[in-house]
Recover the amino acids of this structure.
């Protein structure tokens, strides 16, 4: 048996490199079809994104859509992106809550009550005074400049303190209108910048402490007792004056005394013996 010699090595195999066969590029028709198919997929995806985005915008608008009705004696402040845009009158409105905010204001006259606060009078006696204020919104845009309710409350408190501190307690109890005299004008001058018109300010209640109530009750009781004693003394004085006049008349006319005696005896029903002297 003989041995066959291996085939001779090529120069490339000697250097450690192997040759690879390169396949020819695909035909022109096959490549265009693949590209067209890939383009249709991207177009469908793009259309789906556009439709989804449109549906999302519509849903977002529907979720943020609000309706509001402004009635006859109201006004609405319209804020767009945090800025005051306009004042809306009575009617029905539709707006997007994400970009627009409406604040309803009542233009009808309203009452505000400031509860009783303890104030020292001019004679250093404490008293609690409750005041009520009637007001209305005269210029709605100006109310956006601040918290007009809090400002009105504070101005009323300060004006009431200034007024009561200048009066004595006896003066307030005798004429309670003195406590609110001039308050409406003072409060109105301080609130013109907030678009409020002050219609009336009045004192509602005046409350005293228990000690002062007891003291004033005793004073009133003593005054009434004094008046009763005075009337009793006047009555007794009048009775004594009448008795003195009667005695003077009887002294001047003895016959009148006898007639009065006979009248009294007849009214009593008893027998009376009279020693009648001859004249």
């Amino acid at each position: 048996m003989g041995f066959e010699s291996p085939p001779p090595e090529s120069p490339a195999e000697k250097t450690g490199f192997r040759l690879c066969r390169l396949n020819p590029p695909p035909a022109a028709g096959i490549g265009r079809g693949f590209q067209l198919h890939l383009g249709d997929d991207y177009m469908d995806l793009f259309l789906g994104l556009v439709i989804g985005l449109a549906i999302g915008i519509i849903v977002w608008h529907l979720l943020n859509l609000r309706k509001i009705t402004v009635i006859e004696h109201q006004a609405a402040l319209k804020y767009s992106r945090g800025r005051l845009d306009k004042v809306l009158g009575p009617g029905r409105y539709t707006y997007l809550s994400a970009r627009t905010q409406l604040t309803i204001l009542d233009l009808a006259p309203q009452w505000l009550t400031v509860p009783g606060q303890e104030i020292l009078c001019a004679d250093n006696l404490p008293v609690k005074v409750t005041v009520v204020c009637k007001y209305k919104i005269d210029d709605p845009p100006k109310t956006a400049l601040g918290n007009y309710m809090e400002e009105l409350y504070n101005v009323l408190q300060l004006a009431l303190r200034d007024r009561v501190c200048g009066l004595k307690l006896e003066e307030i109890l005798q004429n309670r209108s003195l406590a609110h005299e001039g308050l409406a004008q003072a409060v109105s001058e301080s609130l013109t910048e907030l678009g409020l018109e002050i219609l009336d300010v009045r004192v509602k209640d005046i409350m005293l402490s228990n000690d002062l109530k007891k003291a004033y009750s005793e004073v009133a009781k003593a005054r009434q007792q004094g008046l009763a004693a005075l009337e009793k003394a006047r009555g007794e004085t009048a009775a004594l004056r009448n008795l003195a006049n009667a005695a003077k008349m009887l002294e001047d006319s003895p016959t009148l005394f006898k007639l009065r005696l006979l009248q009294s005896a007849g009214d009593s029903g008893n027998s009376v013996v009279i020693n009648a002297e001859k004249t």
Notes: The radius of gyration is 54 Å. The helical segments are 11-14, 28-64, 148-164, 169-174, 177-180, 183-190, 210-252, 254-268. Confidence is low (pLDDT under 50) at residues 1-5, 11-23, 27-36. The CA atoms of residues 258 and 277 lie 12 Å apart.
